[in-house]
Amino acid sequence: MTAAESTQPAKTQVGTAMRAPKTAELIASHLRRQIVRGELTAGETLPPEVGLMEQFSVSRPTLREAFRILEAESLIRVRRGARGGAQVLAPDPMVAARHVGLLLQLQGTTLEDVYNAREVTEPVCARMLAEIRTEQDLADLNVVVDGLAALIEAGPETVTDISRWSEAAYRFHELLMQRCGNTTLAVQGAVLADIAQTHLTRSISQGMRRDRFVEPNLKRLLQSFRKMVRLIEARDADAAEQQWRAHMAAAKKSAFLFDPKDMPLVDLFE
């Protein structure tokens, strides 16, 4: 080392080396931003590939790589052929649910942990909905309740169609969260409800829970839903939260009639 070199201050490394985003990632980011902002709406078809290649000054492989990124995020659907093209899709909260579900699996989360979180989240959503509900909210909740009542009245054959009943009941939970006025709670609740629905579907496929779907049990569940609608209609936020907390506690209890509370989610999604 020379004398001159020894007098030079040592260079300090700040941060770490950063990878420049690929062109395809930049294009995907641009289109994603347009979709999120509503500049590109659900059902709209993007311009032909040739036009986009010219607009972004890229090759076809680069553009198609950008499309694959957006397809993986369920923001577009690409159809091949003469009438094909990239069509914009409405952002789906269940895409987030799948990713968060995977994260919970990796952390060893149990089913009981998920149901405990639902007991916290959904009653709060019920309270908030009772405070701000609209006539449309009541109408949509009553559509679900009427549909469930029709399944019971149709007779034993329909009642034992467990998948139809569970889908309709899930819609009631979904409406409570979607209409509560808080998007963050709605998405968070949807993630947890989707995991619980996956649990129920798994149990149904294994023939483990048919005792839950006898007519007296279904009528009690229907009565709980009807009471909930009445409380929301009356804007009784305190009673709505209390009613739904009791409902969710009963749902958690029945959820573990056959599966252990400490069952890890990774076993559920196998």
Automatic annotation (TrEMBL):
<dbReference type="InterPro" id="IPR036390">
    <property type="entry name" value="WH_DNA-bd_sf"/>
</dbReference>
<dbReference type="InterPro" id="IPR036388">
    <property type="entry name" value="WH-like_DNA-bd_sf"/>
</dbReference>
<dbReference type="InterPro" id="IPR011711">
    <property type="entry name" value="GntR_C"/>
</dbReference>
<dbReference type="Pfam" id="PF07729">
    <property type="entry name" value="FCD"/>
</dbReference>
<dbReference type="Pfam" id="PF00392">
    <property type="entry name" value="GntR"/>
</dbReference>
<dbReference type="InterPro" id="IPR000524">
    <property type="entry name" value="Tscrpt_reg_HTH_GntR"/>
</dbReference>
<keyword id="KW-0805">Transcription regulation</keyword>
<keyword id="KW-0238">DNA-binding</keyword>
<dbReference type="InterPro" id="IPR008920">
    <property type="entry name" value="TF_FadR/GntR_C"/>
</dbReference>
<feature type="domain" description="HTH gntR-type">
    <location>
        <begin position="21"/>
        <end position="91"/>
    </location>
</feature>
<protein>
    <submittedName>
        <fullName>FCD domain-containing protein</fullName>
    </submittedName>
</protein>
<keyword id="KW-0804">Transcription</keyword>
